[in-house]
Amino acid sequence: MTVSKTSEKPAEAARGRKDAAEGASEALQLGELSEQLGYVLKRAQLKVFENFLRCMASLQLTPAQFSVLLLVEKNPGRNQTEVASTLGILRPNFVALLDNLESRDLCARIRSTNDRRSHILVLTDKGKAVLARAKKLVATKHEARLNELLGPANRAALLEMLSKIANEF
Amino acid sequence: MTVSKTSEKPAEAARGRKDAAEGASEALQLGELSEQLGYVLKRAQLKVFENFLRCMASLQLTPAQFSVLLLVEKNPGRNQTEVASTLGILRPNFVALLDNLESRDLCARIRSTNDRRSHILVLTDKGKAVLARAKKLVATKHEARLNELLGPANRAALLEMLSKIANEF
DNA sequence: CGATATTTGATATGGTTCATAACAATTATC
DNA sequence: GATAATTGTTATGAACCATATCAAATATCG
User: Per-residue pLDDT for B54 more than 90?
Assistant: First the structure.
């Protein structure tokens, strides 16, 4: 982990007021830390989530909520267990997440007629509309920033390597 | 968000017993999700941390603890504020982390003579020895797995891109 | 059919991580 | 020398993650 969100700008906040005065204690050497995959990965992930939240501020969607809307749109009619486990979310924790989306009228639970235990998930019209706007924001503000920073080819390569790690590590 | 640790194997657990029976409800389509940087990044990060913990099981070191040891070894004589903020850890949260390392005799707090407010951090002999063993474990078990999966060139490219994101996003 | 086991959504609960406010001791500022 | 700022610390709350358990509904199998 090693990193926080709004808190400290890692290498920045290290050298404080002292610098102006006398000793000017220099910045710390990261050393082997900057070669540690986990360290860099975590840092990058926090930055990306931070940026995502800023881009989505107007829609008030977290990465988790966005991923649920995306998945339900692509797979309407699936139940909570299926959607949650596909996202790696535990069913108990998925309940509050859904409560939130449902209370905002973005998503609806419908009792299944086949299996009256399960709740079928679908996006409401508002949910579809909000998701459409969210996609545009992500594309133009968030993912575009990536292309700008890495270039399309590198961006694709990065995604592929991360997928490989996520699936085969 | 989106993913858990020991819990669910995302795409795996989705299709449960039903498959054997009749309808065999198929796996969900990830769709645009697999193109979302944040989603893939988070997944990869969880996998990497999980693997790190397994590799370090014999030494009982978390990624955060390992990063502290690495940083203190490279920068002996710095105080808590400097080390914590370099790692992006808030000072209040750094206290318990240090308490742990100190109670295991891996690291020591020494009252500074210049500024009697601050605690100078150093590794104990045991701390140095444990860190040396940890480095070997990480190199041979953890990072080696990466080279095996991506190849050295790709591994380097990945690290560089992640650093860029972490620093410039 | 009918007893038993399983699945689904939900609740309660505890652990871990992250963030803020406040405090005493010490030092810096002016 | 009075006031402000810094250091380590405590207390505390929010958010996220994980486990056990429950009632309702369904599946399984004798």
Answer: yes
What pLDDT, in 10s, does the model give residues A96-138? Answer: 999 999 999 999 999 999 999 999 999 999 999 999 999 999 9
Confidence of residue A14 (pLDDT cuts 50, 70, 90): very low
**CA pair distance B40, A38, nearest whole angstrom:** 14
Do A166 and B52 count as a contact with CB atoms less than 8 A apart?
A: no
The rounded distance, in Å, linking the Cα atoms of A41 and B45 is: 6
- Give A 40-99 residues with CB within 8 A of chain B: 40-49, 51-52, 62-64, 66-67, 70-71, 73-75, 78, 81-90, 93
Domains in chain B with CATH codes: 63-125 (1.10.10.10)
Q: Cα–Cα distance between B20 and A126 in angstroms, integer?
A: 37
A131: Cβ contacts below 8 Å, ≥ 6 apart: A66, A69, A70, A73, A106, A123
- Measured between CB atoms, does A139 come within 8 Å of chain B? no
Asked whether A122 and A89 are in contact (CB, 8 A), the reply is no
pLDDT tens-digit map of B34-46: 999 999 999 999 9
Answer whether B50's CB lies under 8 Å from B4's CB. no
A108: phi > 0 → left, psi -120 to 50 → alpha, else beta; which? beta
With an 8 Å Cβ cutoff, are A149 and B165 in contact?
yes
Taking the C1' atom of every nucleotide in all shown strands and the CA of B91, the nearest one is D8
ipTM for this prediction:
0.90
